[in-house]
Design brief:
It comes from Leptosomus discolor (Madagascar cuckoo roller). This is Epiplakin. It holds the Pfam family Plectin. One of its GO terms (molecular function) is keratin filament binding. The protein has one domain: beta-hairpin-alpha-hairpin repeat (Alpha-Beta Complex). It has 189 residues and is α+β, with helices and mostly antiparallel strands. The longest helix is centred in the middle third of the chain and has 15 residues. The strands form 5 sheets. It has a 4-stranded mixed β-sheet with strand order 2-1-12-11. 42% of the residues lie in helices and 17% in strands.
Length: 189
């Protein structure tokens, strides 16, 4: 999975910047910035589009790519890839299992699953590979109700504000509006 929104490109200035930097400069709302960064974290790493680096959430905080205000939320999103530790047994569990046990809020879990689907498929936290929704369901990563919900595009969360058109869009819709960076190929809003 590599098709995620990596940063923001200001055409008039021919300048690219990180999502967090764009938020700090008032180009993105904090809510949209968080959704875009969570989607990156839920896909495996945070991206510095200026340096073309892929970082863990902890590394991104140290490098100044994100602020402490988003740190805990992005660590939670990163768990969608690495798995969550079940506090009573110490076993690794999937995002859906964490949601079912109420370690993570359902709406947040759905947003992270949607980001994984939009960027290449559901990530298996044990084997670290991606799979289609139907395969994830057959392997028991979520129940039939969640499979049907995630398979219906009409159910996608409109949690992304497009700063160019002022529309609320799904992550997938916003992703389609991005342009590839000429130097790195990363998708830029």
């Amino acid at each position: 999975g590599s098709n995620f929104i990596a940063g923001v490109f200001i055409q008039a200035m021919n300048k690219k910047m990180s999502i967090y930097d764009a938020m700090m400069r008032g180009l993105l709302t904090p809510g949209t910035a968080l959704v875009l960064l969570e989607a990156q974290a839920a896909s495996g790493f945070l991206t510095d589009p200026v340096r073309n680096e892929k970082l863990s959430v902890k590394e991104a905080l140290t490098a100044g790519l994100i602020g402490r205000d988003f740190y805990e939320k992005l660590l939670s999103a990163e768990g969608a890839v690495t798995g969550y530790t079940e506090p009573y047994t110490g076993h690794k569990i999937s995002l859906f299992q964490a949601m079912k046990k109420e370690f993570i809020v359902k709406e947040h879990a759905i947003r992270l699953l949607e980001a994984q689907i939009a960027t290449g498929g559901i990530i298996d936290p044990v084997h670290s590979h991606r799979m289609p929704v139907e395969v994830a369901y057959r392997r028991g990563y979520f129940d039939q109700e969640m499979c049907q919900f995630l398979s219906n595009p009409k159910n996608q969360t409109r949690s992304c504000f497009d700063p160019n058109t002022h529309e609320n869009l799904t992550y997938t819709q916003l992703l389609r509006r991005c342009v590839p960076d000429q130097d790195t190929g990363l998708l830029m809003l």
